[in-house]
Amino acid sequence: MILTVTLNTALDITYRVRSLRPHASHRVSEVTERPGGKGLNVARVLAALGHEVTVTGFAGGTTGDAVRERLAATPRITDALVPVTGPTRRTVAVVDELTGDTTQFNEPGPVVDPARWSTFQEAYEGLVGRADAVALCGSLPPGVPVGAYAGLVRTARAAGVPVLLDTAGEALRRGVAARPDVITPNADELAELTGSHEPSRATQDARRRGARAVVATLGPDGLVAVTPEGRWRAVPPARVRGNPTGAGDSVAAALLAGLVDRQPWPDRLSRAVALSAATVLAPAAGEFDPTAYRDLLGRVTVTGEVTAA
Amino acid sequence: MILTVTLNTALDITYRVRSLRPHASHRVSEVTERPGGKGLNVARVLAALGHEVTVTGFAGGTTGDAVRERLAATPRITDALVPVTGPTRRTVAVVDELTGDTTQFNEPGPVVDPARWSTFQEAYEGLVGRADAVALCGSLPPGVPVGAYAGLVRTARAAGVPVLLDTAGEALRRGVAARPDVITPNADELAELTGSHEPSRATQDARRRGARAVVATLGPDGLVAVTPEGRWRAVPPARVRGNPTGAGDSVAAALLAGLVDRQPWPDRLSRAVALSAATVLAPAAGEFDPTAYRDLLGRVTVTGEVTAA
């Protein structure tokens, strides 16, 4: 199984309103809810691709109950979330039906106390021992030490389990130093980590900081990857239009799937670009269009060079 | 005990954000939650005044669980909500810290099917038999017939229990025809019911349509009441500044408290105006400032005439 870690899980709520007017009262015409936080999104994509996934992190309160009820109804996902006292945060996305624009409200989430963090680390160590790969995803909730991901990367490496890290800022900087197998920063995260806005240069610099492989996600321009086996660029056949929410999570999911399937890097990158584009094309945020995915898979261009042995 | 009915209960959520910008992402700095819907607000005020209150209506899903958890933690409130399949609606109020303005999003709420409506009516009949007074408050959820309040008024009257009706539109029009003891429309609701924008005339017209007593709430201008015992106007000592949310619910609560305490009408109206003003003055929406309430109570001006016997 693949283990995904979401320390800052969320209940993602989407509201459709006719037109957003500040300081007015709005009748919500449609409400949708789903488990959120990057690791849960990655898990949902992996499960849809047919992989067995175990999810861990924290959940609490009635919002945590809502997240767990929905996970229980998703095939191939096993819930190993650790209970926490405060309620799981909500995110509310308000979609304006006239313009299609989204206004987002993100709650801060519950504080994780040191005892709860210790409980989690023990649970994580037990789960890692049974995992084929681990994904550490998203921001850290209040109370979790900023070096948290570095510790979780080291635990996975000590167990010989490959680990992907998808986070930002100081949590990424510290996590990279613990030598994760793959990181998947976007252009902004990469620039913040390395100080360079030039993707190819920044990607190499991120590897020097400790990541074995760096896959930079460049939105519609595809991916740039620097790995021990070589360096590649992967681009979609055409620019796709749609909702980019979740496209980055689909990249992480495809790379994990390719990793456990022992695919060569160029094939993993093709999958990642196709799945990401199929996610942008899907009507619902964070889901992918399976027909578009199969169609795109053979049409991704991967160029690059294999590192001399 | 006093029974309050809230067919369209809610989980009222308030978010504080630094400044609301459409189509941007916002970090919520503070989240507050409380049970909502007019009848639950009236119950909370009555309980704070020292009355035993039973609340009924519908609750479902994890949002319904959140409402019930909070009710269980409120002294003097007994939860007699009837379970429903869909989740209780949320309302989200986003407060802009820079301007103090509020932007509101209201979910539609779960559909109540005919079987569930029958279950509720049976439960209500049992509760009414043990009540000193009944308050029927707020809008009707999808699925509940528009004549619902008329039926609930008749059940209370058949049991000899006084009934206050606080709703709007067609539900109010039909409910009034069933002869409730008190209705508490605001100026807009009264105009919609009677076609007249002149409060004194509209109040009398509303009585002719079936209400035994009509107490029109005129915001900062106080109350106009036409009852079988006489007609009065009650005004606060000075214009109060603050958050008017919940002021109308405090009027209903004060009138119910005065009714079960068998106070003369002028005293009930003084309490209603003082409690309403103390609610506007309280920092949190829908709560009242007890010191301001006691202070205001002796300073409300009630003028009017007793009907000749």
From TrEMBL, chains A, B:
The keyword Kinase applies. InterPro entries: Carboh/pur_kinase_PfkB_CS, PfkB_dom, Ribokinase-like, Tagatose/fructose_Pkinase. Keywords: ATP-binding, Kinase, Nucleotide-binding, Transferase. Residues 12-291 form the Carbohydrate kinase PfkB domain. It comes from the Bacteria. It holds the Pfam family PfkB. GO terms for biological process: carbohydrate catabolic process; small molecule metabolic process. SUPFAM superfamilies: Ribokinase-like. GO terms for cellular component: cytosol. The keyword Nucleotide-binding applies. GO terms for molecular function: ATP binding; phosphofructokinase activity. Belongs to the carbohydrate kinase PfkB family. This is 1-phosphofructokinase family hexose kinase. It comes from Streptomyces lasalocidi (Streptomyces lasaliensis).
